[in-house]
Amino acid sequence: MSMEESEMDISSLMQGRQGYLWKLGGGQEKGSKWNKRWFVLRDNVLMYFVKPSEFTGFRDKPSGVVLLEECNVRAREHQQTGENRLFHFSLVHNSGEETIVLGAEYEKEMLEWMQAVRTSRMCITDPEAAKQSEEQRAAAAQLELQGAREKRSLSEDALRSIERDLEAVQLEHRQLEGEKEKAEKELKELMARFKLRKALLHWRHRKLTLSFRSLISMVFQERIERALQIKAVADAKIARMQHEFDQAQLARRKAEAAKRKSDEMLARELQLKKECEAAHREAQKLLSAETERTKTAAEKIVELENLGASTAQVDSKEKEELLQLQEMLLNLRSEAETMQLQLKVQPPKAKGAGEGEEQ
């Protein structure tokens, strides 16, 4: 850098300065609200306005004034405020008055404002600097400016190194992206080949299956027909056997029904036989009684005849009694013969009826 450029920079710093700065609300170091104001530096006075249009000269009434006599300028740690990262510096008076905390949006701007305040008239950074002349303070400002520039060059070197690293990373990223695209392309080609091969194998499998079926049909056609004939005969035989089985089942059901009916008729025959036997015994008893009565009547007739009572000598009343007795005797004999015939005929009829029912 030439002497003319350095002298121009120093002279520009020695002149008044104005521009936007951020001011911490309340004028306290521990404040939280930042206000953007238009600052104007003239000699040992730092004024600030809400907007630039409010400043037209020294006669205008500013929003605030800071006297820079016996004022120290100090840089503060950078802090994050909202979406903007500000570079802070403060103005502290030796008398212990309130501290003014200001912030610039760029580091270069902060350094220029700090240097402008230091080089302003009647402004010192420490008590010993009050004894220094304007040339000495300009030299000190030049040294500080040079140090700031060196720091800036170091920062720029570091930034360039970071940019080179970033470019290398981006180049590697682009290479990886290219390799990724190439791999995806190869994968798509492999998938297309796989699908094509799969379709060919499927078509070949179907073709081989159809060929095998046709070959089997040609070679084993005779055996297949013979097997179909045997199957038809077996099906007919099974159908016939099923019909016979159904007939046998029907005959079995009929036989069971006939057996049940025969058992019922046999039970009925036994019941009729018991009833006939009871009737036979009753008829035997009646026959015995009638025989006794007939015998008694015959003995009476014989007794009457033995007594010599003839028919002519007997009166009409006794004659009628004798006739009635004879008629009763004849009736009893006919009834006894009828009952004997019934007893002889009824059992064979019942037996014949039971045999007919069984058949």
Automatic annotation (TrEMBL):
Coiled-coil region list: 131-200, 238-275
Keyword Ion transport among record annotations: no
Recorded superkingdom: Eukaryota
UniProt-listed Pfam families: PH
Keywords: Coiled coil
GO cellular component terms, semicolon-separated: cytosol; early endosome; recycling endosome; trans-Golgi network
Domain PH: 14-122
Single GO BP term: endosome organization
Name recorded for this polypeptide: PH domain-containing protein
Upper lineage: Eukaryota, Haptista, Haptophyta, Prymnesiophyceae, Prymnesiales
